[in-house]
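tokens incoming
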């Protein structure tokens, strides 16, 4: 098939997932066209069947705010027409799905691609509450040929928050680990580790990730010398440095910003720690599972669809730093149990959240929408 994909190209779970999906589809012989304002940061160059089309944004003086939606829709229409795309797969509703609907409407019927929209999280859980966005998101979903969500939690939230009652498929996220360049021992040595347990956190540091709670939690872990925390930050960590120092964590926390070789740190880590107030899925937990280590996370959103408490990780009901710290301490103190959880986590990841398990679900969906069948009501 000929597939157009639009996603946020910067560091972020939805862009990472969309990029991995495009790569997997190209490997399976589909022709894939990424259309965005920037090349997605994990998109490999020189791969057969994989193309990138930049959207040029003009900053006309007349406009107080530069517009992306219209140039994106024009580029989507152009690429659809020039390459005779079968479908456009939009990741994150705003403004991508809206732009795709407009692009489709600009084309004559014979050239109109199908539109598939995948909701990732805050397009429902945050923007869905905003009266300035809600009707546009609802309209985009209503006019998509198929809508998917990355968890059952997000599907239910989309019904509740947006009042969308059309068909929606749940297709969970997947991850394809790349081979690290350095060994676990080399990375641990470079991090200055002796016998400490290495805690791992990666996120874009947005307020809902609760970096304040992450730092409070690790500040309460005893004994202090038992761990180090590596944070892979998808944006500047500068706003949190003062807090790291106030909490006396300067020698316990190692920060890397905008890392592309995440696998090196994943293979060096022992326990994941995630403190978000909500997550529709939490791709970072899945990445940890593929590297055989268990995570401690809050029991929120779609996280229980990824981790099963006491089997493949630990879910904590409370948002209290002490409760989270006790859970982490229990894993630091019991390496055998920790490793057993990690092994089960990897098994679960491979079984349910691998490319082999997930990509065919998208391919089936594409076939369904391109054959013109209406989706059965669920
Ligand atoms: O919706 C967002 O907050 C952005 C998005 C992203 O681009 O990182 O994150 C969401 O999509 C990821 C990929 O599907 C999920 O793993 C994240 O859980 C989800 N974030 C939230 O729900 C807060």
């Amino acid at each position: 098939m000929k597939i157009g994909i639009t996603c946020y190209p910067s560091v972020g779970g939805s862009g990472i997932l969309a990029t991995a999906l495009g790569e997997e589809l190209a490997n399976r012989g589909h022709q894939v066209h990424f259309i965005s304002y920037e090349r997605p940061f994990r998109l490999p160059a020189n791969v057969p069947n994989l193309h990138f089309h930049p959207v040029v944004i003009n900053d006309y003086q007349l406009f107080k705010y530069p517009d992306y939606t219209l140039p994106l829709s024009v580029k989507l229409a152009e690429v659809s027409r020039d390459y005779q795309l079968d479908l456009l797969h939009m990741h994150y509703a705003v403004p991508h799905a809206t732009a795709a609907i407009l692009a489709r409407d600009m084309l004559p019927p014979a050239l109109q691609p199908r539109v598939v929209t995948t909701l990732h999280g805050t397009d429902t859980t945050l923007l869905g509450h905003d009266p300035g966005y809600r009707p546009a998101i609802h309209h985009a979903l209503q006019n998509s040929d198929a809508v998917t969500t990355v968890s059952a939690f997000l599907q239910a939230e989309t019904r509740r928050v947006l009042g969308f009652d059309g068909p929606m498929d749940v297709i969970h996220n997947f991850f394809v680990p790349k081979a690290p360049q350095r060994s676990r021992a080399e990375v641990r040595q470079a991090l200055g580790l002796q016998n400490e347990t290495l805690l791992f956190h990666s996120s874009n540091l947005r307020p809902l990730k609760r970096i304040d709670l992450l730092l409070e939690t690790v500040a309460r872990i005893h004994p202090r010398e038992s761990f180090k925390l590596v944070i892979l930050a998808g944006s500047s960590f500068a706003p949190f440095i003062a807090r790291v120092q106030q909490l006396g964590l300067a020698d316990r926390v190692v920060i890397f910003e905008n890392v592309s070789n995440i696998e090196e740190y994943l293979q060096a880590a022992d326990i994941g720690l995630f403190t978000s107030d909500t997550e529709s899925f939490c791709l970072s937990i899945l990445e940890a599972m593929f590297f055989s280590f268990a995570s401690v996370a809050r029991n929120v959103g779609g996280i229980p669809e990824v981790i099963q408490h006491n089997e493949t990780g630990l879910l904590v009901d409370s948002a209290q730093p002490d409760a989270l710290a006790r859970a982490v301490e229990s894993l630091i103190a019991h390496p055998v149990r920790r490793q057993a959880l990690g092994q089960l986590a990897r098994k679960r990841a491979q079984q349910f959240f691998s490319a082999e398990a997930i990509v065919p679900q998208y391919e089936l969906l594409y076939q369904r929408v391109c054959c013109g069948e209406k989706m059965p009501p669920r």
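note: Confidence is low (pLDDT under 50) at residues 374-378.
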